[in-house]
Amino acid sequence: MPQGRPRPEPGPDPDAIEAVFAYHERTKHHFHRYAAALGYLDWDTQPDPFRRYPGAQLARLRIPARDRTPAYSRIFVPGAVAPRLLSPDTLSEFLYYSMSISAWKAIRENRWALRVNPSSGNLHPTEAYVVADSIEGILPTPGVHHYAPREHGLEQRTEFDPQTCSSLLAGFPEGTFLFALSSIHWREAWKYGERAYRYCQHDVGHAMAAARLSAAMLGWGLVFLDGVADRELARLLGLDRETDFEPRERETPDAVAVVVPCGVGGPGVVKASASLPSEALEAIARAAWHGKANVLSGDHVEWPAIEEVADAAAAPRSRALKGSPEALPSSMPADASDEGPTAGRIVRRRRSAVAMDGRTGLPRARFYAMLARTVPALSAIPWDAVACEPAIHLGLFVHRVSGLVPGLYALARDASAVERLRGAMDTTFSWSPPPARPEGLPLFLLKEGDFRGEAARASCEQAIAGDGAFSLGMLADFEATIRREGAHAYRRLYWEAGRVGQVLYLEAEAAGLRSTGIGCYFDDPVHQLFGLEGRGFQSLYHFTVGGAVDDPRLTTLPAYPEVTEKKDFCEGSET
Predict the structure, then answer these.
(1) In a structure prediction context, what are the per-residue pLDDT tens digits for the chain, which is 575 residues long?
(2) CB 471 within 8 A of CB 542
């Protein structure tokens, strides 16, 4: 190759692509069998839900004494929230509304924590890290910090000099810090076996959206970088330090975001394709590291399929995502009023329903508005945090939405995908626009009818999918996306599904309803319901929204009982 000419980026690895396809087929649920799992819960090895690094210094963050967040409707509109300065209090709020404990539940002598970012089985495989310059009053030196949700604090894994920090964050706006996510696959595999890798990726997507929306509450920008390889992120976070972890509880690096406290200019100022300088990463790796990860379980069951797919789907240094917009349009209707509940109240009161009442419905206008939040062309936030075109679309089972006939519906989250979806689905579907459909919302009626039974049956015979106002399957543009972008896109598709789920969770709460993400469903029977064949489109996540039935045996306790909070703020009784 002539000297000075840039070396071309290698194309997608076909072996890795086939490995993720094989894992996906292997972990499908079928009517006659479920994906491989232990088959029972070994309570003696239940993983500790809280990772800590004994030996690392913990800086406790102050729990917000009052809710300073804007009205919920404002956080989706760029520029609607004035940016607040980075400080110990605003850093605390960023984590409090994205990754912290939201409440404790108790029944008799048993007690467990809920968090603002939902998780499959409430097992929480997702860990969060903050990499930042010194912040007076909380972080005396630049460093890498692990977030401890039970204590609402930051554990300093390592510190480094100001010059290294300047090099690491060079090219980003002043005051920028990094927010990163990783996964402990064992936490999910303990319950779900081989299919657990899928659920870990859902949870990463939930956390990504939770972080972007929390940043929006502060008027901050947040952009996830797609130019950072997994091995580089592991280097930055110290996850490649093998002696610091129990080998079967290793953390897999997932994603890193640039958080821009100077405001919503983040997506325009920070390019998603930006990388982190290798010299700074090496300097951080050579620094003194503190603490070793606590052991989560006394014994483990090996699931080699998870390790194999994790290796195959590891992110290379750079990836060419289709479209790769640096910022998404912001044509969301101007509904950013100061009326209604605060964003903080909605986020911290969000719960996963365990049962639906089978009676509660939803007004058509509210249903349309809820779906519009999931369409990037209609709602810039949180979709501006990831630079890729939508590849997740919704196959809906509408049960009780006033003004709409019950039946199967489809929502294309990108209008350009309508014909591709139509060509892939049952040729007898009508594709009729429903009445009073808002402009720009690509929602279509496919087939009228009562699909409550089919919805429940498809979701592993779970009545909750048929008893809600509506339920849905998230249909990924699967094979073409992965072949084009590479095996890492397998994770990315699940992350997108998780982000959609997080928006639906909050929208349901804002509507006075409840929702639940459903990871257990019969994959191919779902595809058959919509007439889908082959690997072109695959259902990656199910969801249901409706009127929740609460369990009267459960008691709700404050998230941080040592802090006195107003009753109607975050820890009030559930609705």
Answers:
(1) 344 444 445 689 999 999 999 999 999 999 999 999 999 999 999 999 999 999 999 999 999 999 999 999 999 999 999 999 999 999 999 999 999 999 999 998 889 999 999 999 999 999 999 999 999 999 999 999 999 999 999 999 999 999 999 999 998 998 999 999 999 999 999 999 999 999 999 999 999 999 999 999 999 999 999 999 999 999 999 999 999 999 999 999 999 999 999 754 444 568 888 899 999 999 999 999 999 999 999 999 999 999 999 999 998 865 544 443 343 333 334 455 677 899 999 999 999 999 999 999 999 999 999 999 999 999 999 999 998 899 999 999 999 999 999 999 999 999 999 999 999 999 999 999 999 999 999 999 999 999 999 999 999 999 999 999 999 999 999 999 999 999 999 999 999 999 999 999 999 999 999 999 999 999 999 999 999 999 999 999 999 999 999 888 889 999 998 764 443 333 332 32
(2) yes
Do 14-63+77-103+118-312 and 343-546 fold alike per CATH?
yes
Fold held by 343-546: NADH Oxidase (3.40.109)
Q: What is the pTM of this model?
A: 0.93
CA distance 538 to 381: 25
CA 426 from centre of chain: 31
The domain spans of the chain are: 14-63+77-103+118-312, 343-546
Domain 14-63+77-103+118-312 belongs to what topology?
A: NADH Oxidase (3.40.109)
Q: Say how far apart CA 47 and CA 33 lie, in whole Å.
A: 26
Q: Tokens standing for 393?
A: 């679309």
237: which 2 tokens? Answer: 């976070």
Specify the residue for token string 């984590």.
95
d(CA 291, CA 247): 16
Please, how many CA atoms are within 13 Å of residue 24, restricted to the half-sphere of its CB?
28
Alpha-carbon dihedral 412, 399, 465, 108, rounded to 10 degrees: 130
List strand residue ranges (DSSP E) for 208-336, in order: 221-224, 252-260
**Phi-psi sector, 452: left (phi>0), alpha (psi -120 to 50), beta:** alpha
Contacts of 93 (CB under 8 A, 6+ apart): 64, 68, 69, 214, 217, 218
Beta-ladder partners of 146: 129, 155
User: Nearest-CA neighbor of 389 among 316, 328, 480?
Assistant: 328
Asked if residue 297 lies in contact with residue 249, where contact means CB atoms within 8 angstroms, the answer is yes
Which long-range CB contacts under 8 A does 552-555 form with residues at least 24 apart? 553/107, 554/105, 554/106, 554/107, 555/105, 555/106, 555/107
**179 three-class SS:** strand
Q: Which of 162, 149, 154 has the alpha carbon at shortest distance from 130?
A: 154
d(CA 49, CA 112): 9
